[in-house]
Amino acid sequence: MIGEPGRPPPARRPVPAARRLPRAVAGVVGILLSTSALSSPAEVSLKATVDRTEVAQGEVVTLEVRLESPEPPTRLDLPATSDFQVEAQEQSQEHAFTLGGGGGVLFREAYVVTARLRPLRAGALAIPSVRAVVRGREYITQPIVVKVGAAGTGPRAAPPPGAGGPAPGPQAGSRAYRGWEKDLVLEVELDRKEAYLGEQVTASFWLLSPLELLQCEGVTTPRYDGFWQEELETPRTRFPLEIRNVNGIPTRTYLVQRVALFPTRAGELTVDSMELSRITLRVGRPSPLGAFDDAVTLSRKSAPVLVKVRPLPPDAPPGYEPGNVGTLKLDVSIAPSQVQVGEPFTVRVQVSGNGNVRTLSPPRVSPLPGTRTFPPVTRDATERRNNRLFGTRIIETVVVPEQPGELVLPRSGWPYFDPQVGRYQLAPTPELRVNVIPAGAATGPGTAPGTNVLTAGLRPIRSGAILSRRGPPAWQEPWFLALLVLPPLAFFSAAAADRLRQKAQGARALRGGARTARRRLRLARRRFSHGDATAAVAEVEQALSAYASDRLGHVAAGLTRDSLAEELLRAGAHPPAVRALFGALDLIDAARYGAGDLHGEEVLTAAERALDALEEADWQAVEGGK
After folding, report:
1. 484 partner at 20 to 30 Å CA-CA among 83, 301, 449, 469?
2. Alpha carbon 50 to chain centroid distance?
3. What is the count of structural domains for the chain?
4. Confidence at residue 307, expressed as pLDDT on a 0 to 100 scale
5. Nearest partner of 31 among 104, 100, 106, judged by Cα
6. Nearest C-alpha neighbor of 622 from the set 558, 548, 557
7. Which of 228, 183, 231, 179 is closest to 205 using CA atoms?
8. Pair (171, 110) in one structural domain
9. DSSP 8-state secondary structure symbol assigned to residue 350
10. pLDDT tens track for 358-367
11. How far apart (Å, rounded) are the C-alpha atoms in residues 60 and 119?
12. How far apart are CA 138 and CA 5, in angstroms?
C-alpha cells in the first residue's frame, strides 16, 4: 500500500482477473515507451507489506517497510503495538533503477526496514500505520490486519496458482498472491511420539508448498535440548521433492533436514521449532524466457512437538551401563591363539547394530595374571539405513604375556536394553584361550630348542667400508640452479597459456552468441511467413533470452527487469541498448496475449534493432567461454 501525504490511501476495488493481464501488459508497454513518465517519477513512495495475513500463535510475521525517496527521511518510525512482540529488526539501503527518456538512467534510493513480529494473542490483530517524514511532509500507510489462530491451526485449502485456477489477485495491505500463503507450512514429522530412554526418534522437517521451491536459505535449527543428535540427511542445494495429498489437494513436499534423536532423560521432551527465513518460490507457471520468472520470498517456522520418553525398567541386570540401548550384536575374538613369552596378542570386542554406538560401553578385558595389559583403542563407524542410524564400535586391547602357560578368558555376559522387545538382554561372550610358550621355543617341526629361527636370514655387518663424497656438493653444480628455476617457470608459462586460451574461448563465445540469435530471427521470419505466429514469437523470445544469457555468462533465472538491467550495464551494455531490449520483450508479450494489432514484421524489427544496439557494447568475455 502506498502512503499519501497526511492520510491513508483509499481502498481500491478489485479488478477482474480477465482484465488484469491486458491492463498489465499495456501498462508495462506504456511505461517503457513513454519518456515523459520516465523523466518525472513519483518523488516519494512509502509501502508497508507483510509476508502473510493469516498465522497461528507461535509463528512469526515479517513486516517490510520500503521508502523510495530522493533523499534520506528525517523520520521513519515503526508502529508501537501491544499485540505483537518485535523479535528482530533490520535496516538496509537499496538503489532503485529506472530507464529514463533520452537515453538516461534514473536511480532512486530505497530505505528498507524489516521487522519480525510475533503475535501475543489470537484474533484479528492490527499492525498500526507506519509514518515517514521527508522534506517536512508526512507520509502514512494503512493499518494491516493479521488473523491469528490457535497454535497448530491454519487452513490449507486454497489451490495453488497454475494448478487449475487463476492466481489470486493482490489484497489491500499486503503483496500479491496472498491466497495460497496459508498452504506454505514448515512442519516436523516424528517416526514415533513415545520412546524409551536412549531409543532413536527420527525427526524429519518438511516444507509443504503449493508452488515450486527455487531456493531455501537462512535455516535456524532447533536446540534439541535433552537429546543426543546425529544428522541423517541435510540437502545442500537440491531439496528432495515428494507429492503428498493434503486435505485432498496435491501438495509439493520438500525435505529440509532429517536427524536421529536419542533422548538423554525421561519425561516429556520438546523438539523445538525450526525456522526458514528466506524461502524463494516461483510464482505462476514458468516462462519460456527463464531469466524473467517471477519469484517471491517468505519465511516460515515449525511448531514445537512433544516426545514422551519412558524410563528404562528398574530390573537392570548386574553390570548394565547406561547408554547400552539398541538392537545389538556382540562379537569377541583373540588373535593369534599361540604366542611366545613377550609377544603380544590382541583381544578384539565388536558391538554392532541399530543404536547410538557412541554411547555404548562394550565389555572390557580384565587384567590376566602374568600379563601386561595396555590401554584399549576404540574405533567407531556409522551408516544410515532406511532413516535409521546403524553403527559399529570396536575396542582392541593388546596383552603381552610375561610367563609361559595357558591364558583363559572365561565366559561372561554383556547386558543391554533392546527397545524393540522392551526388556534387557544378555549377550554371551565365549571362553577364549591363548597358549603361551617359552621365548625361543620351537614353533614348528625340525627346530632345536633355543634356536633363533631368524638367524639363517641375517647377514654380517660390514665394518671395513669407507664412506666418502665424490665430487663437490650438489648445490654447487650448474644443473642445480636450472633445476630450481625450471618448475616455477613451467608453472607460470602453463598458467599464462591457459589464461590466453580462456580469453580466446570467451571471445569466440561472444561472437557466436550474436550469430545464433540472428539465425533464430531468420527462422522466426520464415515461421511468420507461413502463418505460425505463436511459434515465431516464441523463437524471437528465445533468441533474445539466449543472447542475454551468453553476454552475462549465466542463466538469470528469477531476475527482475531492474536486476537484469543492472547486470547488463555492468557487463558492458549502454542504457539505450537495454531500453531497446526491454521494448522488444514488451512487444513480444503484447503479440503473445493479443494486446493491439501487432504484426510479425514489427516484432522482428524491434528484436533486430535491440541486437544491433547491444552489439555496439564493449562486452566483457566471461571466463570459461560462456
Report:
1. 469
2. 24
3. 4
4. 95
5. 100
6. 548
7. 231
8. no
9. E
10. 889 998 888 8
11. 7
12. 5
**Amino acid of residue 577:** A
Residue whose C-alpha cell is 508497454: 29
* Residue 196 near residue 36, CB atoms below 8 Å: no
Grid coordinates given for 38: 520516465
Mean pLDDT of the chain: 77
469 closest CA partner among 481, 477, 461, 478: 477
CA distance 440 to 442: 7
**Whether 338 and 279 share a structural domain:** no
More confident residue, 134 or 165: 134
State the Cα–Cα distance between residues 198 and 356, nearest whole angstrom: 8
Alpha carbon distance, N-terminus to C-terminus of the chain: 42
Rg (CA), the chain: 37
Residue type for 433, please?
R
Q: What percent of the chain has pLDDT over 70?
A: 74
Q: How many residues are there in the chain?
A: 626
* pLDDT tens-digit series, residues 268-322: 999 999 999 888 888 765 555 444 456 888 899 999 999 999 999 998 999 899 8
- CA atoms of 284 and 161, how far apart (whole Å): 6
In a domain, 218, yes or no: yes
Of 321, 327, 397, 389, nearest in space to 361 by CA: 321
**From CA 363, how far away is CA 413, in angstroms rounded?**
9
| Range in 133-142, 364-373, 567-576, 585-594 the model is least confident about | 585-594
Give dist(CA 86, CA 69) in Å, integer: 26
Domain hosting residue 115, numbered range: 1-11+19-154
Count the neighbouring beta carbons within 10 Å of the beta carbon of residue 448.
6
DSSP letter for each residue of 394-419: EEEEEEEESS-EEEEE--EEEEEEET
